[in-house]
Design brief:
Keywords: Membrane, Sugar transport, Transmembrane, Transmembrane helix, Transport. It catalyses: D-glucose 6-phosphate(in) + phosphate(out) = D-glucose 6-phosphate(out) + phosphate(in). InterPro entries: MFS, MFS_dom, MFS_trans_sf, SLC37A1_2, Sugar_P_transporter. One of its GO terms (biological process) is phosphate ion transmembrane transport. Belongs to the major facilitator superfamily. Organophosphate:Pi antiporter (OPA) (TC 2.A.1.4) family. 48% of the residues are buried. The protein has a 3-stranded antiparallel sheet with strand order 1-2-3, with no helix packed on it. 68% of the residues lie in helices and 2% in strands. It is mostly helical. β1 and β2 form a beta hairpin. It starts with 5 loop residues before the first helix and ends with a helix.
Length: 541
């Protein structure tokens, strides 16, 4: 018999369930990367919406505001002025650009709280598809303002608000879907790798938008809009929400024995598994993230309660119920400040590089991708450390503690040359995005499957939306504050970011100290119980 080709041997090396998980991992990675890809163009195009129009022989001034007083009025072209695209060619351009960011992020923050609750009650595939198609429409709508020569600020703000609302469908949906398929083993590392879609999307968005920004900035929005809409169609055609939809092997054995509890009319199923299946279940990576009888194999010591008629579905958790889960409020506040820093860089970094390094919009956009490259390594590193230490809050606190001096060094060293800027972009990206990535993925998954839920699998989307929605409030405030503060100098913007980082650190330390206190209290109780047992043993003797 002829030997199988290497490619076929590689295919049969993995089970169908493993191939399904790999497919869902890659598909959800691409789907949410497209969301960030469509958010990035606005930060790249800012340098084109308002150009630095100083004459070549003009002596560099301390701020654009001082320069704007000295320049003479210039004759405008049919669709743009020498200083950019109307109405962003005025002296208050930073406030106007900040308003665009704020309108998107404020709508995103408000919509996120509702998105998780709605997402728990609708099919994920349809919900996510509609959101991606809508996002593609409104992203392209912003770019159409270039082709139709639109100079009304409200047109661009409405496009941003509508886009912010429909983009809230993305995060709760993909986290719930990935949660249905992947287990608890090495959660920090797996989700750290998966969460790199954020940085990958930002990098691709920067490169795509930067390709057309200097020639036809409208295409910087239209092309990403078409991409996310096309991936929305792919989502509709191929997304598998749940392992049970394929009748995967992660169902309980059909030969399981059922014992009825006469008091409560609940059935307790104890699966009968052979030795090979038992070994497979002991692998933590095979254990489902959501402990639902319908979607996963359960350990032998795990009892599942169903009603006497065989119904197993639990009602979706309420908003107040999700807030009562220990740690949700603390990590939500921590993400608020961490995301404030991250999104300020997301929306204002290319313009900062343009002003400091005196690069054109395309080169500044390309250079800003290094911050996201650092974010990829930061997210993976945070996941690995938290898995090893088994302490999510301590890992966040450690990285936030290092992020504050890194931000100060970035503001000082970036003015010394391009090489120093590159190094600090990588370091700052890792330290700023590491805690952000950890909280939005592994921490959200931990809290969405907290033991206080008693196996309710319909909480992950709501918990994720609460945490990310609260973080999005910070994401809305960061770019707005940057737009208001930047006219007084970029150093003040960095001071604001360092203060936000310090606040995130304080919240994470509060969570860490609370965990230490509870551990100490539990240890103290155990010691008292042990002492009581010893006394009883001595009395019996």
């Amino acid at each position: 018999m002829a030997q199988l080709p290497p490619g076929v041997r590689f295919i049969v090396l993995f089970t169908r369930d493993q191939w399904c998980r790999a497919f869902i991992f890659v598909l959800t990675f691409l789907l949410y990367a497209s969301f960030h890809l469509s958010r990035k163009p606005i930060s790249i195009v800012k340098g084109e919406l308002h150009k630095h129009c100083a004459p070549p022989n003009e002596v560099e001034l301390n701020s654009y505001k001082e320069y704007a007083i000295q320049i003479q009025p210039v004759k405008k072209l049919s669709n743009e002025s020498q200083c950019g695209w109307e109405p962003f060619d005025k002296n208050n351009y930073k406030q106007l650009l900040g308003a665009l960011d704020y309108s998107f992020l404020c709508a995103y923050a408000v919509g996120m709280y509702l998105s998780g609750i709605i997402g728990e009650r609708l099919p994920i595939r349809y919900y996510l598809t509609v959101g991606m198609l809508g996002s593609g429409l409104f992203t392209a709508m912003f770019g159409l303002g270039y082709f139709y020569n639109i100079h009304n600020l409200w047109f661009y703000m409405i496009a941003q608000i509508a886009n912010g609302l429909v983009q809230t469908t993305g995060w709760p949906s993909v986290v719930t879907c990935i949660g249905n398929w992947f287990g608890k083993g090495r959660r920090g590392l797996i989700m750290g790798i998966w969460n790199s879609h954020t940085s990958v999307g930002n990098i691709l968005g920067s490169l795509i938008a930067g390709y057309w920004v200097s020639t036809c900035w409208g295409l910087s929005f239209v092309v990403p809009g078409v991409i996310i809409a096309c991936l929305g169609i792919v989502c509709f055609l191929f997304l598998i929400e749940h392992p049970k939809d394929l009748s995967c092997a992660c169902k309980p054995s059909s030969s399981s024995k059922s014992y009825m509890n006469g008091t409560n009319k609940f059935g307790v199923h104890k699966p009968t598994l052979n030795l090979k299946e038992t070994d497979k279940l002991q692998d933590p990576a095979m254990q489902c993230l959501l402990p639902d009888r319908e979607n996963c194999t359960v350990p032998l010591n795990h009892n599942m309660a169903v009603n006497g008629e065989g119904g197993t579905r639990m009602s979706a958790i309420s908003f107040i119920g999700a807030l009562r889960i220990p740690g949700v409020i603390e990590f939500s506040l921590c993400l608020l400040f961490a995301k404030l820093v991250s999104y300020t860089f997301l929306f204002w970094l290319p313009l900062y590089i343009t002003n400091v390094e005196h690069l054109d919009a395309k080169r500044a956009g390309d250079l800003s991708t290094l911050f996201d490259v650092g974010g990829i390594f930061g997210g993976i590193l945070a996941g690995m450390i938290s898995d090893r230490l088994e302490k999510r809050a301590s890992t966040c606190g450690m990285m936030l503690l290092l992020a504050a001096p890194a931000l100060y060094m970035f503001s000082a060293i970036s003015k010394m040359g391009l090489e120093a800027t590159i190094v600090m972009l990588l370091i700052s990206g890792a330290l700023v995005n590491g805690p952000y990535a950890l909280i939005t993925t592994a921490v959200s998954a931990d809290l969405g499957t907290h033991k206080s839920l008693k196996g309710n699998a319909r909480a992950l989307s709501t918990v994720t939306a609460i945490i990310d929605g609260t973080g999005s409030v910070g994401a809305a405030l960061g770019p707005l504050l940057a737009g208001l503060i930047s006219p007084s100098g970029w150093n003040n913007v960095f001071y604001m970011l360092m203060m936000a980082d310090a606040c995130a650190l304080l919240v994470s330390l509060n969570k860490t100290f609370s965990a230490i206190f509870l551990s100490y209290k539990a240890l103290h109780v155990k010691m008292e119980i042990s002492s009581l047992y010893c006394d009883l043993y001595i009395l019996l003797l």
